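#struct-help
A.M.: can someone run this one for me? Single chain, 118 residues.
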Amino acid sequence: MNTIELTQITNSKDKTILLESKVSLVIKKKERYWIVYSPHFKTFGYSNKNENNAIKDFDRALGLFFDIHLKRRTLEKALIKFGWKKIDNTFEKPKHFNIPLHLLVGKQDKTYSYQLSY
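D.P.: on it. Structure tokens below:
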């Protein structure tokens, strides 16, 4: 999955956005901290305990990223700034990102799915 689909479902009370994308995560231990970074969203999480806690912190940060940009109605602008291409109602993630290759140690792909109401 290389796209984020923005599907808007309107209820009588709220608007719900469904987001789903498979993104690359860079996971690296630096000194005593585990750091998880997504070059696709310029978002990171960290933990001084272990990799799983760093991924949980990243999940929280990515959810916050979507929540803030949806509420401010700036998600499209942010994605385009990060190199995503808008095609109809979807965004195609960048094929390349500007990050030094030595940081890609510990790279993994993870699928994220969010349903956010605003």
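A.M.: thanks! The mean pLDDT is 76.
D.P.: also worth noting: The chain has two helices and eight strands.
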